[in-house]
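Lecture 7, part 2: worked example. A protein chain together with S-adenosylmethionine.
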Amino acid sequence: MATDFNELFDEWSSSYDETVAGHDPEYNEVFRLYSHILEEVSNKSKGNVIEFGVGTGNLTEKLLNSGKQVYGVEPSAGMRKVAKEKLPDLILKEGDFLNFPHPTETTDTIVSTYAFHHLTDEEKSAAIKQYSLILNDNGKIVFADTVFADITAKNNMIISAESKGYHRLANDLKTEFYTTIPVLKEIFESHGFTVSFTQKNDFVWIIEAIKQRSV
Ligand SMILES: C[S@@+](CC[C@H](N)C(=O)[O-])C[C@H]1O[C@@H](n2cnc3c(N)ncnc32)[C@H](O)[C@@H]1O
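Predicted complex, written out as structure tokens:
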């Protein structure tokens, strides 16, 4: 759950932007094309947007610069502080994917980058169910996150990270809730979305889901 990770992200908040710029070799591939990935998520979004796991506000900035209204949700106080320093006018609430204060306006798009893997698959399903009720007809969910084609691909990536001596990365892959495309496809479709997946680097895919109906 969100609070399990708050301490880690509070600590990481001051150096996070250096990591995404490629200063940590273990995470180089994870963040390869970071800015382009965020740009794509922003381009696929429309109207009133809820963003989960705002972090230091890098996606938020792109959304705001392209004229979207953003309602940010972020559990880590450290991350919220850095984001508010960059974007003082941003509406930014304490909350997480499952428990958050709802905006008063209707919602056209729900976005998140590099964060959905903090939920177990069961929690992911509960979140998507909730979003199907919040989103307007033809509303969208646009996520970018580490996902694997199947469980073999995930296990091979853990072996590859270990063989390179990337022990922090290998440990993350083993202990966080990185899932597979078939699992995500089933989750989105069971809650009335059509979904497509586009790979951006060896880890990250863009997940674009369009609401067909509330189930
Ligand atoms: C790797 S950072 C990504 C930040 C930003 N979205 C980006 O793309 O750079 C993950 C963010 O997700 C947040 N987070 C962790 N667990 C969460 C949860 N359950 N719900 C929402 N956000 C969460 C963390 O506090 C952190 O800010």
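Residues 2, 5, 9, 20, 52-53, 55, 58-59, 74-76, 79, 96-97, 113-115, 118-119 surround S-adenosylmethionine (CB under 6 Å). The first strand starts at residue 48 and ends at 52. Keep this in mind for problem set question 3.
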